[in-house]
Every structure is written in structure tokens, then in C-alpha cells.
Amino acid sequence: MTIRRDLLEHAGHLRLGTELLHDPKRNKGTAFTDAERDALRLRGLLPPHVFTEAEQAQRALANIRRAPDDLQRYMAMTALQDRNETLYFRVLADNLTELMPIVYTPTVGEACQKFGHIFQRPRGLFVSAADRGRIGEVLRNWPASDVRVIVVTDGERILGLGDLGAHGMGIPVGKLNLYAACAGVDPRKCLPITLDVGTNNAALRDDVLYVGLRQPRITGAAYDELVEELVTEVARNYPYALLQFEDFGNHNAFRLLARYRNRLCCFNDDIQGTAAVALAGMLSALRVTGGRLRDQRILFLGAGEAGTGIADLVTAELVATGMPDAAARRVCWFVDSQGLVTSQRQDLAAHKRPYAHEHAAIVDLLAAVRTLRPTALIGASGQPQTFTQPIVAAMAEHHDRPLIFALSNPTSKAECTAEQAYQWSGGRAIFASGSPFAPVELDGHRHVPGQGNNAYIFPGVGLGVVASGARRVPDKMFRIAARTLADLTADADLASGCLYPPLADIRAVSLQIAIAVATFAYANELATGPRPDDVAAHVRSFVFEPNYVSYV
Is residue 143 helix, strand or coil? Predict the structure, then answer.
């Protein structure tokens, strides 16, 4: 009997018996066949009945469903991943509609808040300010050398929850799990990184179970030098990797993206991924309302990464159709904590200035809605319940089908709920949210709210980048992804009120986005290899399927 040593060798030696059962990347548990049990010295270490992967998945899902609340279900999924990664991704990929809210938004927010209290086993790579000068050495401690996708956070702006420091590790871990489950990016080639530079959250620093550095955040030159060292060592150790910046504070996110986007293959999901899924939602909505994107007036509540990222992508889409840049930017208006963003204000950060239009001062959102009469209201503020009944009613008063996008995450931070948007607009709102909401029955009509989840975008973009070996990630890739996503939204989905395809179809959606992105990379000399005869088949060859392999 021949043992498939190529599938078992790890860290320079053959892992058999108990070691194999404790290796989550290779463990099959009760699915090891009789032949494998004899060849791999597993006889007696497992109960005698051999289960199929499908039978194991049935049992695992039943156990997850029996957990008393979503956090416990999150922990049950994490425990499954710690035991058997293939089975974990099989269960997740086959039940995305049910489990995505568990492994990511909104439950991941609570998991990050309680990270130190529910911590069981380290996952990902913690790089701290104490590692300055030896980050390359730390990266080389990671057991895989062929890394193709990295998600890094410094934990300063976790969802809408603020500074969670090292407890933000749940975000890059969760994002990379979605890369694998939603698009088939090989999880063995993914690396989650938390850059621990301290935390300004005093309650965390005082928590005896906090896992990170118990010091205020480093800033200024010290912070920049640490990030520079990390990026330099990532490029040196993983030259073919895509680096995704995730949940950095506004004051760092924009400048880090500007600094590194032309130096290596990288993007910021909060700026560009959110922008693409929101643009896709607007393009889908126009199929319902009629009209053109250029004729809309979009009012944003919140002028941070997400809001200005969406506006920048909308502007780029309009400019691509021939609209002058200044006119395209006047489609987008912002209200921040000080009121309407106008050219008269002297307190504006650089990313807000392109949207500082000539207008009299307006101090609150309701007045801005009544004055500007926007066709679309987009919430990216992290401030819950800020789309009040008078505001939604004013939107509906001015437009037959107003767009109401409450995009802040997690659910507790949403600007309004789906039920509120539908009720306050008399059922006429076209609603999308960052976190999931259940369908709403109103006046005999069933409204199905769309979830503007970045998972519709970044996994497909990532797969396209990996398959093509793209050296850079220009904004046009996100415009392509947005248009592809909008085109894949069926008329039946729109009729129900949903602006996106069903989450159950997300692997197929991601594949089409990946093919479009890879095609663009090959056509624009961004790919590292020659264009294959069949780009679609080439991209499909990179898709990871969570199926067991035979070791004999």
C-alpha cells in the first residue's frame, strides 16, 4: 500500500497517528477509510465506523444549531475549524446564508469584543510593536511559505465598535474564511495578521484577560516605521501575495492606501470593497427606478472610509461615462458630525475636501434631506438609529422609490432597521444594509432586504488577483466587480426588494467576478504570466473545494 507522502509531509517529517488527528489541515476524523487507518497508524484511535464527509457535516451542523446563542455558535464553528479545516469549510460553504452571520457580521463583532474571554487557540500571526526590527523573522515563523492573500488590521476601528486592539484578530481570520468559503481561495495560502500597536481602549488595557500589548497606541513616525517594516517584509517573504488592509482608523487608512497601492498588490476593503458593493446596489436599484446614475443625488451620513470610498467609486464610474470630474463629484454630498460638508468649512480632512460643495450651512441630517432632496441616503456613520422616521418620511415625500442604505455594522450600529425603512416610507423604500435583516411583511407584500455585504466583492476580486498573479489592484477592478455583481442580480430578486443575488449563490457570483478581474489584469499588463487561452478555465483551476483527499 502506497502512502501519499506529498499530502502528508509537513514541517519536514511525516505526520502519522495521533499527530495527524491533531493537525486540522489534514485531519479527516471518522472519515479516514479502513485502508488509511492501517497505513497511517490510526487503527484503534478512531471508532470503527467510517463516516462520509456529508455525514460528518450533518452532525457538525446539528451541533452548531443546538448552541444557545450566536456567540456560542461562533465558538462551535471556531472549534470545528481547530479540529478539521476541510469539514469546517464544507459546512460553511454549503450553508452560507445561515452561517455567514455567525462567522462574520454581526456575530464577529461580539466575538472581538469578548476575544480574550473566549480565547481557546491562537489563529493567525500577531505582530507587535515589540517586534520592531525583527518582523521578517516573525513572518518566517508562519508555517506556510506560499502565501497568496493576507488580511491585516491594527484593530483601531473594528466594524463600528471602535478600538479593540489585538482583539481585532477575529476580523482578518473571519475575512480569510470568507475568501475560502465564498470564492474558493485556498485557505492554506491565507495569512491573517494583527499589527498590535497598543490600544487606547482603557477598559481593554485594564482587563486581565486582554491578549495584546497593554499600552497606548504608538503614533506618528514610530507607527509609520512599524507599518513600513511590515509591508517591506511581506513583499520580501511573500512576493505574490495580495495584502488587504482592514479596519484601520480613518487617519491611517487613506494615507496607507495612497502610500502602498502602487508599491505592491494591496487594497483597503473598508474603502474599496464597501464602495463596490454599494455601487452595485445603486446600479441594481436603477433597474427598478429607471433613470441614470448621473442624475442621482446621493447624501451620505458619515464621511469616513466607507462613505468617501463609495463616493470616489461613484465618481470614477461617472467620469468613465464622460461626465466631468467636478460634475461627477457634485452627485455626492456628505453630512458629518459637524453638519453638511461645504466649501466654507475650514475643519475638513483631505478625503472630505473633494465633496465640499458650495452651499449654505446645514447642521443636521433632516434639514439636509429636506433641502437637498436626495434620491439616495447612505449611512456609513456607525451611529445607530440616525435615520429617524421624519428623515425616512422626507425621503419618501420627495421620491417615489427612495434608496435607503443603512450600511453600518454590526446590526446594533445600523442607521435604521429594514422594518423601519419600509414602514416609514409606506413600503416604497429600496433598502439595503450592512448586516442581515429578516424579510418584512407589510400590507400584504413581502419585502426582502438586500445585505450589502463586502463578501460579494472581496473574495471574487481576490481570486481573480491570485489566478492572474496581478501586481496591482487598481480601482477599475472594483468598478468591474460592482458591474458584474449588479448584472448577476436577477429580476426576481429586484421584484422582492433585494438588490443582490442570494447569498447561497455567492460562490458562483465570486467566480464570475474573478473571471472579469483576471480578464482585466491580462488585458492591461497587470498579470505576471501570459494570458491563458481560456481565462475562465484558468480561474476555475484555482478554486479550492473542501473535499477530503485520499492518503493511500
Answer: coil
Number of alpha carbons in the 13 Å side-chain half-sphere of residue 130: 6
Give the right CATH number for 105-264 from 3.40.50.10380, 3.30.70.1790, 3.30.110.70, 3.30.300.30: 3.40.50.10380
Q: Report CA-CA distances (Å) from 154 to 105, 227, 243, 305, 332.
A: 18, 10, 14, 15, 30
| Residues of each domain in the chain carrying CATH 3.40.50.10380 | 105-264
Catalytic machinery residues:
104, 175
Q: Distance between CA 172 and CA 177 in Å, rounded? A: 9
Helix (H) or strand (E) holding 470: none
Question: How far is Cα 67 from Cα 78, in angstroms, rounded to an integer?
Answer: 13
Segments in 115-209 forming alpha helices (H):
115-118, 135-139, 170-183, 202-205
| CATH code given to domain 5-102 | 1.20.1370.30
Q: Are strands 13-14 and 9-10 parallel, antiparallel or unpaired?
A: antiparallel
* Closest to 453 in 3D by CA, of 248, 277, 314, 282: 277
And the C-alpha cell for 45? 484511535
> Considering the domain 269-552 in this protein, what is its CATH number?
3.40.50.720
Half-sphere exposure of 109 (CA within 13 A, CB side): 19
- Cα Rg of the chain (Å, integer): 24
Region label for 249, one of left (φ > 0), alpha (ψ between -120 and 50) or beta (otherwise): beta
Q: Report whether 547 contacts 53 (CB < 8 A).
A: yes
15 pLDDT band, cuts 50/70/90, is low
CA–CA distance, 279 with 20 (Å, rounded to integer): 46
pLDDT at 251: 92
User: Which DSSP letter does residue 342 get?
Assistant: B
Q: Do 267 and 460 contact (CB within 8 A), yes or no?
A: no
Q: What angle do CA 411, 422, 379 make, to 5 degrees?
A: 45
Q: What is the pLDDT of residue 389?
A: 98
Given its phi and psi angles, is residue 162 left (phi above 0), alpha (psi -120 to 50 degrees) or beta? left
Range(s) for CATH 3.40.50.720 in the chain? Answer: 269-552
| Three cell numbers, residue 20 | 495527524
Pairwise CA distance, residues 404 & 406, whole Å: 6
**Separation of alpha carbons 242 and 149, rounded Å:** 5
Q: Which residues pair with 300 in a beta bridge?
A: 334, 378
Q: Is 508 helix (H, G, I), strand (E, B) or coil?
A: helix
Asked whether residue 479 carries a pLDDT value surpassing 90, the answer given is yes
CATH 1.20.1370.30 in the chain: give the residue spans: 5-102
Q: What is the DSSP letter of 66?
A: H
Q: Provide, rounded to the nearest whole percent, the portion of the chain with pLDDT above 70.
A: 98
